[in-house]
Fold:
Amino acid sequence: MNSSAQPLKAQFPQKLEVLFKPSRYKVLHGGRGGAKSWGVARALLILGMQSPIRVLCAREFQVSISDSVHRLLDDQIEAMGLRSWYEVQQTRIIGRNGTEFLFAGLKQNISNLKSFEGCTHVWVEEAQNVSKRSWDVLIPTIRKEGSEIWVTFNPELESDETWKRFVARPQPDSIVVQITWADNPWLPDTLRREKDALAERDPEAYQNVWEGRCRPAVEGAIFYREIEAAQAAGRIRPVPVDPLLQVHTVWDLGFNDKMSILLVQRLGSEIRVLEYIEDSHRTLADYVQDLRQKGHNWGTDWLPHDGAARDFKTGLSAQEILTKMGRTVEIVARMDIEAGIKAARVIFPRVYFDETKAAGLLDRLKRYRRTVNSVTGEAGAPLHDDASHGADAFRYLALVADQMGNGTTSVDDPYKAFRNSWHG
Structure:
């Protein structure tokens, strides 16, 4: 340490010793009480005393400095007796040797991240919320030789970008550590009592909150139980296209909003979601061209009720446009949203999802939630957000799945061998 720095003693859980080993990525994930955040804060403050470093403390959303780890660093400066070394300013923290801590929200500053390219360290807190776009911009921006990216988060879904990028498929030159309350020898009794109470009251929530295990779906997800059951039954798996069966599509129409398209086959009672397409600001002709290139044995395109409404610009409905392009089109009968959700629950045990090509749909279903009254806490109508478009398409699937034919009067005999091998 710099000779002008005062002697310092700082305690760390044993698993956090890796913070002082050089590595491009240091990823700490786990549940509450593992001391991840205060351990990282302490380690960076110590490194900032040893030599001048420039640290960007980031998270996906930061409306004000109070949303950042500014207060946490301030608390650790106080706890370690470093007031004479660090000056805590309103929006940054400065060390006597030039070390600097800066704070930013990634989503709000995505176009200005280049201003941080001289940083030696980045600490991304609550990283489970960071989007693919933010990571794609941030990582190449931090390119100073020897620079490091530190990531701390409590996992939520296996489909979250941060989990996929850093834990499921770790980056080269990375240290990935799972740390929980059991690794923290200084866990306060208050937290221990909270942990034990949640384990008794809600074992499933306990596994996520304290043990740091991914949830089947977000808390309060409308199809939480159904997703959990699909995972347990092995119905999220590779789902090959059966060339003898027709491939049907189910659409939720959108242009500025998301366009969502499910590619589905049905055999007997089984409903197989082969692929999920989601995009925006593209014409129907674009989507049809993409579908044609797949070369499937096409069946029916099922559109929601607004697919029959004529656009004032073209004078044609989506149904008419697709029909002119040679597609076979039907309109899904209009049904109340809640009735559609019930119908979706009914078919869920029959549905197989391709774990790769239908992953986008699964992610939408895992995040499909209701509004919650801020005063009463009561759940209301489903939220209209990014998750709702794919979920709406799935509701429409529930209404038409048993109308999906295969261009043949026989279902069992021609496909028996394929079906048996598929299940095997």
